[in-house]
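Researcher: Let's walk through a ligand-bound prediction step by step. First, I give you the protein sequence. Second, the SMILES string for flavin-adenine dinucleotide. Third, you return the three-dimensional complex as structure tokens. Ready?
Model: Ready.
Researcher: Here are steps one and two:
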Amino acid sequence: VDMRLAQGTSMTITPIRTMMNHSTTQIFFDDLRVPAENLIGEEGQGFRYVLSGMNAERILIAAECVGDAKWFIAKATAYAKERVLFERPIGQNQGVQFPIARAYAQMRAAELMVREAAAQYEAGGDVGPEANMAKLIAADASWFAADMCVQTFGGFGFAEEYDIERKFREARLYQVAPISTNLILSYLAEHVLGLPRSY
Ligand SMILES: Cc1cc2nc3c(=O)[nH]c(=O)nc-3n(C[C@H](O)[C@H](O)[C@H](O)COP(=O)(O)OP(=O)(O)OC[C@H]3O[C@@H](n4cnc5c(N)ncnc54)[C@H](O)[C@@H]3O)c2cc1C
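Model: Step three, the predicted complex:
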């Protein structure tokens, strides 16, 4: 539909203020009529098309999470080399090095899964398990890296000027959207492992 025509009558769009910089809105539909000539694809196949788009979205978001993790790791590594305490860089301490190294390993594992999912999607196969696992692993990798980065920066991790706290808030989103971690685990348990449906 032409949203400019529908808005204010059969479609109401209202912004929702969120913890990060997203243009998030809620949309209400009220007797919205969709002209027959606006049909995309085959009638009755709409939900299939939506599902296919969701797999692509999960791979896309997973790639975004890998990029976020790389950003946190690069920031933490640079800061750990430059911040000197007790006459040596904090990155010389294994207590500081190891979380950064772990974040790197997790990011690389996620990156491989994202590539596998993208390759399978392009080949046209059923990519549900790989798309979901890529999103799960990449979201966890970015969240671990975000937490690690705040810790590496110490108090400056909370200062707005370093951007760490902003990215930290943004990284939290991917445990929930576009699909929550629990729902991915539920999908894998039921559709990949054959366990009984839980809901
Ligand atoms: C900033 C932002 C932007 C968004 N953008 C979009 C968008 O562009 N398009 C769009 O369609 N949606 C969008 N969403 C919505 C998003 O996809 C949903 O918030 C997300 O899928 C979770 O659904 P819900 O909020 O209804 O949570 P619920 O389904 O109510 O779940 C609440 C909690 O309960 C858990 N839970 C629910 N059911 C089960 C179960 N059976 N077993 C175990 N745990 C369970 C969930 O994991 C979650 O932790 C956005 C959300 C946010 C926050």
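Researcher: And what stands out?
Model: The chain has six helices and four strands. Residues 190 and 197 are 6 Å apart (CA to CA).
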